[in-house]
Amino acid sequence: MFLRRISLRNFRNHTDTQLHFASNISVFTGGNGEGKTNILEAVFYLTSGRSYRTARDSELLRWGEDDFAVKAEVEQRGGKSLIEIYYSGAQNAKKIKVGGVEHKKLSDLIGKVNAVIFAPEDLYLIKGGPAERRRFLDFAASQASPQYFFYLQKYHHVLQQRNRLLKLIAMERSKPDALEVWDEQLVEYADQVTNRRLRIMEAFQAILKPVHARLTDNGEAIRIDYLPSVEAGIGYAAGLRTKLKAARRDELARGYTLHGPHRDDFVLTVNGVDARVYASQGQQRTAVLSLKLAEVEFIRQEREEYPILLLDDVMSELDDRRRVFLLQYVENRLQTLITSTNLNPFPGGGRTAELAVFRVAKGEVSCGV
Questions:
Q1: Which residues touch 137 (CB under 8 Å, ≥6 apart)?
Q2: Which pLDDT tens digit goes with each residue over 87-130?
Q3: N- or C-end of the chain: fewer Cβ atoms within 10 A?
Q4: How far apart are the C-alpha atoms of 17 and 8, rounded to whole Å?
Q5: pTM, whole model, 2 decimals?
């Protein structure tokens, strides 16, 4: 997958930015707050119609403007496609077009543009709560497999309906027997989601180990383990049914479902210990980088082409050896967009044929150092 061009109109602090890409590695330099990260955010926005920095589209609007647009031409194995997203602040609504054809659902964007982002705040994948790790896992799996995304959507729809029914039963506005239908649907979709997650974890582990070994010069061993609320694998469906029945009283008291994929987690261990508790910040950062590169390779395996890699202000956070490894990894392999306040972290101060350098100042982009 290769992003050939992108245009941003009234997106964040970009009034009218037009970018064309030819090199595999593009570096955006400039001071903090000038608009470098906004470009990466716009690229990522194309993957799902959602920002990774805010849940509110209104915050993406340039100050004083009523609407914004992000358009991109992407080259894939199947040919080129034009992706367009328009947002109206007055209506608080989005319009999506793929190849000139309007789509009604944001979910129709999934898989059209695949991208992986790595930013300093991604340490939440280790330090944060289970919801953050589930979000990472679900998005990676959805980009790789539309079928996974289908089952995940079905599961969350049933989960919402079941939680609503639990509250109605607790208020004596419905009968407990009504849960049986929703229980069976929940079990059906939970079985699909959980066992797919388990296979994804196995794929991640096979990729993660050698990547992390190279990043740490064979000094550390990493492992990723899925932690389901109900034991996964053969017998999962029966196990979940049993858990739901046993938890019925507690669920009615709390008004929500206590078991299922929405309660699952995964853990990263480094040299046999929980990275969240015992790893240093440097070890945690390296572990997250390994996880992101594993995500890149996983999507490539499933989709038979690399996603776009977005590196937001992370080069200065890595030591020389890890920076060299990362640049060697992406060179001639996948398109990579990098933000940095300066070119010091790059070979030759960024003056190499392999890098396309853009200068960003006050939402304006110019070519060259």
A1: 197, 200, 266
A2: 999 999 999 999 999 998 888 899 899 999 998 889 999 999 99
A3: C
A4: 5
A5: 0.93
**What domains sit in the chain, N to C, each tagged with a CATH number?**
1-114+308-369 (3.40.50.300), 123-306 (1.20.1050.90)
pLDDT at 368: 72
| Burial 285-307, CB ≥16 within 10 A → b, else e | bbbbbbbbbbbbbbbbebbeebb
2 pairs with which residues across the strands? 75
Instruction: Report residue 98 as tokens.
Output: 């793929």
Nearest to 38 by CA among 4, 62, 57, 12: 12
* Rounded-to-integer distance, Cα 155 and Cα 139, Å: 15
Contacts of 177 (CB under 8 A, 6+ apart): none
CB 215 within 8 A of CB 221: no
Q: Check whether 349 has a pLDDT greater than 70.
A: no
- Virtual CA dihedral for 338, 339, 343, 347, nearest 10 degrees? -20
DSSP summary character for residue 331: T
- Give the Å distances, CA to CA, from 175 to 52, 99, 158, 283: 41, 49, 18, 52
Tokens encoding 335: 């398109």
pLDDT confidence bin for 350, thresholds 50/70/90? low
262 phi and psi angles, rounded to 5 deg: -70, -5
Phi-psi region of 73 (alpha: psi -120 to 50; beta: other; left: phi over 0): beta
In 200-302, which ranges are E strands? 222-227, 265-270, 273-274
Question: How many residues are recorded in the chain?
Answer: 369
